[in-house]
Amino acid sequence: MFLSSLEPRTARTTAEVVKCIAWPLAVLTVLHRVVVKAVNGFRTDDFTPVYNAALAFLNRQPVYTANFQWVDPHYLYPPSGTLLISPIAVIDPERSRWLFIIANAVAILIALYLLLRMFGLRLDSPVAPLLVLGAFSSETVTNTLVFTNINGLVLLGEIAFLALLLKRRDLWAGAALGLTFAVKPILAPLLLLPLVRGQWKVFLTAAGVPLALTLIAWPLSVDAWQFVEHTVPYLLESRDYFNSAIVGNGMYYGLPTWLIILLRGALAVMVAASVWLLYRYCRHDELFFVCTTAGVVLGASFLLGSLGQMYYSMMLFPLLMTVLLPNSVMRNWPAWLAVYGFLSYDSWLSGRWVETGRAAEYMKTTFGWSLLLIVVFAVLLDRYLAARREGRLGDGIEPSHLLPTTKAESEPQPTRT
Fold first, then answer.
1. Residue 4: is its pLDDT beyond 70?
2. For residues 237 and 385, which has the higher predicted lDDT (pLDDT)?
3. How far is CA 192 from CA 15, 157, 278, 279, 341, in A?
4. Number of CB atoms found within 10 A of residue 10's CB
5. Is 413 a residue whose pLDDT tops 90?
6. CA–CA gap between residue 207 and residue 202 (Å, rounded)
7. Confidence (pLDDT) at 67
8. Cα–Cα–Cα angle for 340, 299, 324, nearest 5°?
9. Rounded CA Rg of the chain
10. CA atoms of 157 and 116, how far apart (whole Å)
11. Stretch 248-259: mean pLDDT
12. Are 79 and 216 in contact (CB under 8 A)?
């Protein structure tokens, strides 16, 4: 009797089968990424320069002393970010790094839960373990933990912002975004959403939080102005290493300047057209509009800006999650070919085909981001042209298979004798 009570219940439905398979895989993948891969570390260490800067800040020593001639990770956070991360230097570097890894892992898990709730799902949904498994199997989450940077906390800020924006909690939404701005402005393109939705209060806290933190941090830093003179010019430059943006790979492979400008310009036109179509015809479907537009503008900033790194791709999770919506632009195989490019942890470096493997490895992220933006544009344009051809633009550009059938079509036709 006692042993039978411990026997796992046999799954009876497809959803239960998915959960009983995916949850063990998800839990063990999370543990492996946090306890083994992240603690071991590999190749790049984003944490040490951050820890050293925090330690210097607490000891009233110069922070912005990086030599940008080296390709090692540099400390690039503004004084407001230095203030926020300074507590990590209160304890020794090893334990501090472990706590930072745990904080990012927990932040990612909370962000994934909030993402589930945004789409009306709970932890008992079969989507939950698949989402966790997919996220922690990806390059973006794995290397965020292994390199030990702050992107997991930034992802939490992004998802919190989107969730609060949809609930019209504007001041709190702006505060969530503002906290990420205090460290890095990677989510700045998301300000387009409250702008076009008329949620003006977002801007008060989105600007007020980093400004207040800067006012506190500036007099506490002995070289705050060096961030402006020394670090900002470097941030505005395009580098040809560890850079998956078009300009970075273009410089690495020696493409002519005119071709780099042409590629960026062509994709910028597609992005602008996609955003216009989303705003003009889809903004009343709030969840679809907010998550899809967020993915488009962030993907464009990674690809078309001066710096795009593969582990930024976790910020595109809301767009990928729209695949659950019937009108999603992600319900096609080219979109997921693109996702493989920027999320897969696979390495394409080859000992047999050295040059080809290196090109595939270095270009896969750029290819993935580019293809994703092209797919979104193509899907939206096709829907627009179909709706115009059928004379129903006034009702939006929903896919034709989602349109309600007419009464004549739904009623059975009389048979002729």
1. no
2. 385
3. 38, 16, 12, 11, 26
4. 8
5. no
6. 9
7. 81
8. 60
9. 24
10. 15
11. 92
12. no
